[in-house]
Design a protein that fits this description.
By secondary structure, the protein is α/β, with parallel strands linked by helices. The chain is built from four helices and five strands. The protein has a five-stranded mixed sheet, sandwiched between helices. The longest helix has 16 residues. The protein is globular and about 60 Å long. Keywords: GTP-binding, Magnesium, Metal-binding, Nucleotide-binding.
């Protein structure tokens, strides 16, 4: 049998010459935080190629495995309601990175609350040395602040 895999010669070589499954993709554990309505659930649904219909705000936490070609991200999404945010730190252990989702079209008060929560997370002993992604969501809304304003 012949293999005409010019763009992926390593996979072709493995298929012809190596027995057994391919090596596992590395997995990384992330925590996704942000205020309610910032778009955390929608973001993860989109990354998992799930339907955007019937998205319900997370009231506690959920975990999604987000597959990429070279890795799998196990994302623990934490609800952003006032009464839940005080428990966020209980779920930080074992995290290897943080996604902070911000509603860039939110009110000044909500933006201030988000800023305080972000600063708290940045100073937390289990997160302060980890990579942070701050995602300014809802850029398509008229009231959205620019990246520089955020």
């Amino acid at each position: 049998s012949f293999c005409f895999c010019f763009s992926l010669p390593w996979q072709c070589f493995r298929a012809l010459c190596c027995k057994g499954p391919p090596p596992p993709r590395p997995e990384y554990d992330l925590v996704c935080i942000g205020l309610s309505g910032s778009g955390k659930t929608s973001l993860l649904s989109q990354l998992c190629s799930e339907s955007a219909e019937n998205i319900v705000s997370t009231t506690g936490f959920s975990i999604k495995a987000v597959p990429f070609q070279n890795a799998i991200l196990n994302v623990k999404e934490l609800g952003g309601a006032d009464n839940i945010r005080k428990y966020w730190s209980r779920y930080y252990q074992g995290s290897q990175g943080v996604i902070f989702v911000l509603d860039s079209a939110s009110s000044e008060d909500d933006l201030e609350t988000a800023r305080n929560e972000l600063h708290s997370a940045l100073q937390h002993p289990q997160l302060c040395t980890l990579p942070f992604l701050i995602l300014a969501n809802h850029q398509d809304k008229p009231a959205a602040r620019s990246v520089q304003e955020v």
